[in-house]
Amino acid sequence: MKSVISVDIPQNPYDVVIAQDAIDHVGAWLSNHEQPLVKPGQKLLVVSNPVIFRHYGDRLVQSLESVGYQVSTCILPAGERYKTLRSIQKIHDAAYDAKLERKSAMVALGGGVIGDMTGFAAATWLRGIGVIQVPTSLLAMVDASIGGKTGVNHPQGKNLIGAFHQPKLVVIDPQVLKTLPPREFRAGMAEVIKYGVIWDAELFAALEQTDRLDQYRYVEGELLQMILTRSCQAKAEVVAQDEKESGLRAILNYGHTIGHAVESATGYRVVNHGEAVAIGMVAAGKLATALNLWSRDDDQRQYQLIEKTKLPTAIPSQAGAEALIALLQGDKKVEDGRVRFILPKAIADVFITDQVSNQDIRPVLAAMTTP
């Protein structure tokens, strides 16, 4: 099975290719165009982490070298806490050592952290060189690798330092999910559920009809291809309409406003990004219910789907309601001192509002916090 999804951004269109054994064909897809995305013979810097590179690095490098690319590598530690400017400097140092030029490119082989950092390093090296995304986690496949958001964390908040830098190509190989730990697979499913709530009622219904969603082995074959294709299609459609998040694209942050605050309040060590998004979606649903914006039935449907995926639905005790409210004020989506929330009205129908007060948020957060 192979799917090709076009991300039709006016100045920077590109394809998302979803195919079995895709890692073995990255070099061919980069070079096999009338106008190659990166001309064979150019220098490429592959950025990855030790675990991912051990599984898939040789295959990717072989794919690139087989069509004539000059390949160097930069291996960074795994984990959200390394998503810092110090890591970007390491990528820049590797780019300097490899003598990358303006027609060179970086290749991100890894999850969302590697993808975000590689994209930002590419955006800022020689004032911008190409980047190719080869995501290896479900979360990165359906979300982080598409749309051109790149960046790193600041000590006071997530993704506060960054740039928009669209990739030249996104290559998704579903088979690499076999080596993804179950917890990371569940984290990606949080973003998949998000697409169902904000954009795609059919996807949401298909997830509801599936017995198990918490591990790769229960979601193989046609359903996995559908999950990847429809999630990527949803992201592509939204991003094509609003590349720089001036309006519609903000709906992709559903669950992220409170989710990012939970991550930050717990030092990025208690919950991972997908788990935080799940908690954030539960909070957004409960907030919308309290404000009579959507039905208790839809709220229950969302809650049950998140629970079925075995994602957390409560705020960890390390993140108190008042600490979260303080962190929300530092969110990069704040405008004129008002926090922008994405709240649901129905399955596949959400809206953006800055009319939510701390008095509205506080009881929801307090009720969700574990003792």
From TrEMBL:
Its EC number is 4.2.3.4. GO terms for biological process: amino acid biosynthetic process; aromatic amino acid family biosynthetic process; chorismate biosynthetic process. GO terms for cellular component: cytoplasm. NAD(+) binds at residues 112-116, 136-137, 149, 158. It is found in: Cytoplasm. Zn(2+) binds at residues 191, 256, 273. It catalyses: 7-phospho-2-dehydro-3-deoxy-D-arabino-heptonate = 3-dehydroquinate + phosphate. Catalyzes the conversion of 3-deoxy-D-arabino-heptulosonate 7-phosphate (DAHP) to dehydroquinate (DHQ). Its cofactor is Co(2+); Zn(2+); NAD(+). The gene is aroB. It comes from the Bacteria. Keywords: Amino-acid biosynthesis, Aromatic amino acid biosynthesis, Cobalt, Cytoplasm, Lyase, Metal-binding, NAD, Nucleotide-binding, Zinc. It is an enzyme of class 4 (lyase). This is 3-dehydroquinate synthase. Residues 74-186 form the 3-dehydroquinate synthase N-terminal domain. Residues 188-334 form the 3-dehydroquinate synthase C-terminal domain. Binds 1 divalent metal cation per subunit. Can use either Co(2+) or Zn(2+). The keyword Secreted does not apply. Pathway: Metabolic intermediate biosynthesis; chorismate biosynthesis; chorismate from D-erythrose 4-phosphate and phosphoenolpyruvate: step 2/7. Belongs to the sugar phosphate cyclases superfamily. Dehydroquinate synthase family. Pfam families: DHQ_synthase, DHQS_C. GO terms for molecular function: 3-dehydroquinate synthase activity; metal ion binding; nucleotide binding.
